[in-house]
Amino acid sequence: MEVAQLLKYMKPDGAKTGLRINFNVAKLKAGINRFVLRPPRALPVLRGEKGPECAKRHAGGRSYLPPMPGFMHVKTRILSLFALHFLLFTLIMLLWGCAEEKSPPQTVKTHPVTTITARKHPVGNQYQFSGKAKHSRETILSFRVPGQIMRLPVRVGSRLGKDELVAELDREEYLLEVNRARARVRSIRSKKENLAKDFKRMHKLLRREAISQSRFDEVESGFKSVSANLEEAEERLRIARKKLSYTRITAPDAGVISRLPADKFQNVSAGQPVATFLSGNKTEVEVGIPDKLISSLSPGKKARVKFNALPENEYNATVTEIGMQPNPESTYPVTLVLNSPSPKVRPGMSALVQLNFPDTQKPAVLLPLSAVAHEPYGPKYVWEVDPQSMKIRKKPVSTGAVSEDKVRILSGVDKGDIIVVRGVHRLRPGMRVKPIKADNP
């Protein structure tokens, strides 16, 4: 009996969850018994035999082998039964495995992306200028008289209070000058006192007409001359004392020493820098603005400042001073003050100042630079998300000026479009995405 004849005793259950087979055990047993216990049927001969017996078996156009002996019949039946059971067992296991295996439900894969909703912004041109940080009050200290430095008790970074000593010259020569001027004043003052007595006495005698007018005029002239000499001597004494005081440099206010170009025992001239003193609690940045933009700038304008040494920090600043005369570089000096001073910012640090200047153009869509992609030698494009199907598509765009990390979109994106801003190079047209909203630029 063939397998197809046995399978007719098995019928499918028709369950929706998988393939199941219901076995009619009685019919299956009957089929097996019928196959095993039926009388043997002659098998066709594939090749002819020679002789009269072969001729008899070929009578009628077909040839058959004679029935096999009993022991051969039993052996064949046993082997057939074993093969049949093995075949049925294998078939049942295959059907059972197919019935038990359930296909998992198919889900649509989505890719998370960062998006923004396009909106229009007032357009302005942003410029960047290089500058340098400086303290709000930076004073170069120097002597007003020449001499040799005898005392220099400070170092770079020394913090001083008001009127504390910074440096002092050798004062001996200036003390001698003060003493000479003082002695001269005393001498002339004594002479004047004597002449003052003579002048009073001569004046009385003149009233009595005891002396001539010429004699009185001579005494009066001598008294006036001595008085003038006394005034000159006193002025020289005052100057000598001033020069003596100029041999000391003191701190004009509480602050810190930032530079110290002079050394102890060094001979310095009048006006030669000895120390740089910083006072005050504000930090300034000085930049040069070209003439085509200086007219659009006014005190109080806001700006943003970054320092090369502190790339992770950004500071807000305000314009406080605008120069009237250009520098040798044909730029006008502009001073900005940091709104929130930081101890990390030190004088001399290189700064990058960002200033916005008004533009007459209409508001435009601004997108992050990361949202715009382009193929090699191809047009620029962005990825737009369909809010209904959550699928993406390419939209060609034309771009304009770039300011900071944003680019002006001239065409291709309208207000309200949902645009992918991160991971644009991994996307494909028609891909389903899961938008994650980011802060609008």
Describe this structure in words.
With 441 residues, this protein is an alpha+beta fold. Among the domains are: 98 residues, no CATH class; 85 residues, conserved putative lor/sdh protein from methanococcus maripaludis s2 fold (Beta Barrel); 76 residues, Helix Hairpins (Orthogonal Bundle). The strands form six sheets. It has a six-stranded antiparallel beta barrel with strand order 5-12-15-14-13-16. Strands 4-17-22-21 form a four-stranded antiparallel beta sheet, with no helix packed on it. It has a four-stranded antiparallel beta sheet with strand order 9-8-6-11, with no helix packed on it. It is elongated, with a radius of gyration of 57 Å. The N terminus is likely disordered.
